[in-house]
Amino acid sequence: MKTVLTIIRWVVGLLFIFSGLVKANDPLGLSYKMLEFFEAWGFHFLDNYTLTFSIVMNVCEVLAGVAIITGWRIKFFSWFLLLLIIFFTFLTAYVLFSGKIKECGCFGDCIPLSGSSTFIKDLVLLLLILLIFMNAQKIKSNLSSQFSVSILLLTIIATIAVQFYVLKHLPFFDCLPYKKGNNILNEMKAPAGSVPDSFTIRFKYKKNNQLLEFDQAHFPNDFDSTYEYVDRFDQLIRKGNAEPAIADFSLRTIDGFDSTAFILHQNKKYILLFAKDFSNINEWKKDFEELLAVATSKNVPVYIITADADNGIKLFKNVPLLKCDATVIKTAARVNPTYFVMQDAAVLNKLSYADTRLLLQEIANTK
Question: Distance (Å, rounded) from C-alpha 40 to C-alpha 45?
Fold first, then answer.
């Protein structure tokens, strides 16, 4: 039994560590997922705290995984782990059975799982953790208290440090469709071999004060001018899977003209600066102006993409400014702002404003 418990502890611990680290790679992604839950539950008073909750949740997952492997204070951490998995199982059950949220985000954007898969995974973990919980008295740690405390403190510090780093410099692993190396136009197309939604057209007519409804293949045999047209609509008869990775990317001028095709078909290097807003402009404006001067000298166009066009116009008089939806920008650019180095629709490079110096060097070396 001791060997079985050891195996279970390592399996559960490694899964929690992996899950926590995957989400710690992109804590903003988890915070946006929390916003979806709060929206569904009407908990709008918590909207401003989602990033804090995200950081804490990721630390708790990794900490619980490390603690259960070390076996130190096993009674306390088995309780802690049990409460976590009960909470996660509730969330995945809500996703699966409510239909209000598409995915729970258990492994972030890097490993998307269906609602049923995540729910089953959590049920299995719940059973394994119950075994650990009920046999906690049989588990003894081979590590000293001092060493165990040191490992757990290091775990907390490292997990927090990783999250603050990626919040400043972009995730280590970009799992979103706007990542370096992707072609945005290709990501806007339906996947190869996918099946589109299937619809049928239904009509509503009135005859003899009766409202009749039928589709285009089942018109009444006596259909004539005595039928009074009321309405027509499309009815979904089979849900397809032809959803592109990028479904809502659009760049518009201040006047509302759609410039997406023009921007993404430039057969030369250019830079897009995605700035959701300008709340932290004092941190990056000086570096941006220096980059703009170098890019101009190298004939590399620079465009600002923002959801805050009114302030953008006031702040930047000589830079082309394009409007984009804030949700799209939050997906494309996890750091506000983020530079995209482009060639046609291909993302050649992607850098946080905190790494503007690296981009300056890259543009300066452009021939």
Answer: 13
Cα-based torsion angle of the residue sequence 29, 30, 35, 40 in order, rounded to the nearest 10 degrees:
120
Residue 196 pLDDT > 80: no
Rounded to the nearest 10°, the torsion over CA 163, 165, 169, 171 is -40
Convert the pLDDT of each residue in 288-315 to its tens digit: 999 999 999 999 999 999 999 999 999 9
How far is it, in rounded angstroms, from Cα 296 to Cα 322? 18
β-pairing, 321-323 vs 228-238, is: unpaired
Nearest alpha-carbon partner for 331 in 95, 58, 28: 28
Q: β-strands 228-238, 198-207: how paired?
A: antiparallel
Cα–Cα distance between 198 and 240 in angstroms, integer? Answer: 7
DSSP string covering 32-98, please? HHHHHHHHHHT-GGGGGGHHHHHHHHHHHHHHHHHHHHHTTTHHHHHHHHHHHHHHHHHHHHHHHHH
| Structural domains in the chain, sorted by start | 2-169 (no CATH), 198-238 (no CATH), 260-364 (3.40.30.10)
Of 83, 92, 86, residue with least CA distance to 37: 92
CA distance 27 to 34: 11
Per residue in 227-242, pLDDT (tens digit) is 989 998 887 777 766 6
User: How far does the chain reach from its first CA to its final CA, in angstroms?
Assistant: 67
Contact 337, 353 (CB under 8 A): yes
Report whether 37 contacts 91 (CB < 8 A).
yes
At 360 the three-state DSSP class reads helix
Pairing of strands 346-352, 338-343: antiparallel
